[in-house]
Design brief:
5 strands; alpha/beta; 5-stranded parallel sheet
């Protein structure tokens, strides 16, 4: 099965990327894997405080992914695979793509204005030729009709 890997965060462009990936998956008989990345937490000397911060970050990421998965299911009928990982985003994405031969593309949303976002900048820049799958960068300025037409 052809799987589109989509990285989700709190930004509007992530929603655009998810909609595009879902529409492509439906049209190609594929699936979607949603990845929420948690940045590595800075070490805090007090273990209880550190654990609380990490737990809150994980809860936020899980809620974000659950919301995205619900929207995806409502709009397309697809039930996505969900992954929440902590660490360096590009490294995690490389690991996931290397570990799953069914991943056919990495789908990222670019900000509608200003800098495109750190993952887009990374994978469109220095790491552009290192993945075994294409990178689809979806402009965050696209509305639903444009996404539907293009996907």
């Amino acid at each position: 099965m052809r799987i589109y890997l989509v990285v989700i965060d709190d930004t509007p462009e992530a929603e655009v990327a998810l909609r595009f990936a879902a529409r492509r998956a439906v049209k190609t008989g594929g699936g979607v894997e949603i990845l929420a990345l948690m940045p590595p937490q800075e070490f805090i000397a007090f273990g209880g405080v550190q654990a609380t911060i990490e737990a809150e970050a994980r809860q936020h990421a899980e809620a974000l992914v659950a919301g995205a998965a619900g929207t995806l299911f409502e709009e397309s009928g697809l039930k996505p695979a969900i992954t929440v990982r902590e660490g360096d985003g590009p490294k995690i994405i490389h690991e996931m793509i290397d570990a799953n031969p069914e991943i056919a593309a990495l789908v990222l949303g670019a900000a509608a204005s200003g800098a495109p976002g750190p993952l887009v900048a990374h994978f469109a820049g220095a790491d552009a030729g290192t993945l075994r799958v294409p990178i689809m960068i979806i402009p965050g300025s696209l509305d639903r009709e444009a996404i539907d037409r293009l996907s």
